[in-house]
Amino acid sequence: MAKILKIYPQNPQENLIDEAVKVLQNGGVIIYPSDTIYTIGCDIYNHKAMERLAQIKGIKLDKHQFSIICNDLSHLSEFTKPIETSTFRFLKNHLPGAFTFILEANRNLPTTYKGRKTVGIRVPDHIVPQMLVEKLGHPIVSTSIHDDDEILEYSTDPELIAEKYDKLVDIVIDSGYGDNNASTIVDLTTGEPEIIRQGKGIL
After folding, report:
1. Residue 171: domain span
2. What 3 state SS string does 32-71 have?
3. What pLDDT, on a 0 to 100 scale, did the predictor assign at position 151?
4. Sign of CA dihedral 144, 122, 184, 110
5. What is the three-class DSSP state of 18?
6. Which terminal residue of the chain, N or C, has fewer Cβ atoms less than 10 Å from its own Cβ?
7. Which residues contact 40 (CB under 8 A, 6 or more apart)?
8. Does residue 24 contact residue 42 with C-beta atoms inside 8 Å?
9. Is residue 171 part of a domain?
10. Which residues pair with 187 in a beta bridge?
11. Coil, strand or helix: which one is 98?
């Protein structure tokens, strides 16, 4: 059964964040809030956790399109090719925020990203994922929680999310109702920003 941790952005309890981080360190999979929708994530360097994440999504691990969640731009050089000053300035002006930026990947990505030429980077404007990444010491991966409802594309009620994923994940962080509008995906690999999916973030 998934454990529910009520962590609200107005006053996030550090001990509960630590509890979630410990689960991530031990290969757990958690559901957490962001500045857009609720997402499922795990430690980017834990292969077995990544396999679990892919299984939950019903896809093969080598086919995944998981985004990398950072708490600032300091992790970029670990996973991406050198970025031009103008591109970095553009990123800095829009992050943290409701964007997923597609950048050229380098060879330092974990084995689960093997052969990828690009990678999606997110820096959510939400204290909970920022604290999770900061305390873990490196990024976590993220994938959206889609809803079975014909009208709502994404699940917004953390209690219903916890009920649905009770036997699939280890922790659900309840930060109140989430948004139903995902991040805006922007491709920065060609020099000029190209919107791949319009979401909450406005350029």
Report:
1. 3-197
2. ECCCCCCEEEEECCCHHHHHHHHHHHCCCHHHCCCEEECC
3. 45
4. negative
5. helix
6. N
7. 29, 30, 31, 53, 56, 57, 142, 143, 144, 145, 165, 169
8. yes
9. yes
10. 102, 194
11. coil
134-172 residue pLDDT tens: 999 999 999 988 755 444 556 788 888 999 999 999 999
Tokens encoding 110: 């974990």
Judge whether 133 lies within some domain.
yes
pTM (two decimals): 0.93
Determine the residue type at 23.
V
The answer to whether the CB of 81 falls within 8 A of the CB of 105 is: yes
Q: What is the mean pLDDT of residues 107-113?
A: 88
CA distance 37 to 172: 13
Number of domains in the chain: 1
pLDDT in tens, 50-106: 999 999 999 999 888 899 999 999 888 889 999 999 999 999 999 999 999 999 999
